[in-house]
Structure formats: structure tokens, C-alpha cells
Amino acid sequence: MTDRTWVGYAEGHGSSTLVTDAKAASSMLHRYGKMRSQALSPRASRSLLEQMRGDS
After folding, report:
1. Cα(40)–Cα(34) distance, rounded to whole angstroms?
2. With contact defined as beta carbons under 8 Å apart, do 9 and 16 qualify?
3. What is the pLDDT of residue 16?
4. Which residues contact 13 (CB under 8 A, 6 or more apart)?
5. What is the predicted pLDDT for the residue at 1?
6. Angle at the Cα of 32 (from 28 to 35), degrees rounded to 5?
7. How does residue 5 score in pLDDT terms, banded at 50, 70 and 90?
8. By CB atoms within 10 Å of each CB, which of 3, 21, 30, 36 scores lowest?
């Protein structure tokens, strides 16, 4: 592995995986970026939880 090789790491209950395949690591990075772009802000998350709980 060279200095600038992309790697990925995934963890689950009782297991973990280091992904050294560049294509697979790139795919992981792409999916993570997509999830981050679709996530609510902390303020919007709190507001949604409060609405679901019936606080407002």
C-alpha cells in the first residue's frame, strides 16, 4: 500500500473490516458523502424528535 491509497473501515456488533481495495473504499466514501448530504442538521433533528414526541 502506498501513502496515498484510499482505505475504508467498517465496524459492526462484534466485528470490524479494513477495506483495502481502492474501488470498494471509493464506493464507501461516496455512500458516506451521500448520507451526510441527506442528513438533517442537529437543530432540525432535535425539532423533528420533539415533534414526534408531541412537544410542539
Report:
1. 12
2. yes
3. 97
4. none
5. 56
6. 140
7. confident
8. 3
